[in-house]
């Protein structure tokens, strides 16, 4: 039996076991398999492992998407998660090449995926509070928001959760060093039904400019002299 002789349900089940590249390659072989590739039922879950994957055409983005994960665990992610003023020229150039890649993709999700239920971002050092705010506004059914090592996330995101996260039940801001204890306490107060986790976030060293760093060093030296 040839694969194209299988019914639609069987083909969808077969495609579900394939990664995005394999699905795309199989879809190129004939019109019937292309139609299966384009079936929204196949795209309720998307996982990405680097910003580069977001620019490919091997997936579909639409209302059927329920669960989205963008987790960048490469050693290179450390470059984007150090303070901007500490980066050398090479590091800045590297970051500039994908400065808006994840944010632009998430804004596309805002416009095309209103039924999103869960979002996980890890190592996405360029994602901003404004981006998360738009997601919360445009995806009212979002139940789980997990942010890890996203250094530009601040208390503004926590405030957005209290205002627009009516459906939210899980919030993680692990290793997000620019959120504060006050921001977390506000979420606990305003959203008691949300399971909140902030592993190694509060009291971590926040981003700071060289001037502020210099002032702190001078203050420390004075204390030592005393």
TrEMBL record:
<dbReference type="InterPro" id="IPR050648">
    <property type="entry name" value="F-box_LRR-repeat"/>
</dbReference>
<feature type="domain" description="F-box">
    <location>
        <begin position="9"/>
        <end position="46"/>
    </location>
</feature>
<protein>
    <submittedName>
        <fullName>FXL22 protein</fullName>
    </submittedName>
</protein>
<dbReference type="Pfam" id="PF12937">
    <property type="entry name" value="F-box-like"/>
</dbReference>
<dbReference type="InterPro" id="IPR006553">
    <property type="entry name" value="Leu-rich_rpt_Cys-con_subtyp"/>
</dbReference>
<keyword id="KW-0833">Ubl conjugation pathway</keyword>
<dbReference type="GO" id="GO:0005737">
    <property type="term" value="C:cytoplasm"/>
</dbReference>
<dbReference type="InterPro" id="IPR036047">
    <property type="entry name" value="F-box-like_dom_sf"/>
</dbReference>
<dbReference type="InterPro" id="IPR032675">
    <property type="entry name" value="LRR_dom_sf"/>
</dbReference>
<dbReference type="InterPro" id="IPR001810">
    <property type="entry name" value="F-box_dom"/>
</dbReference>
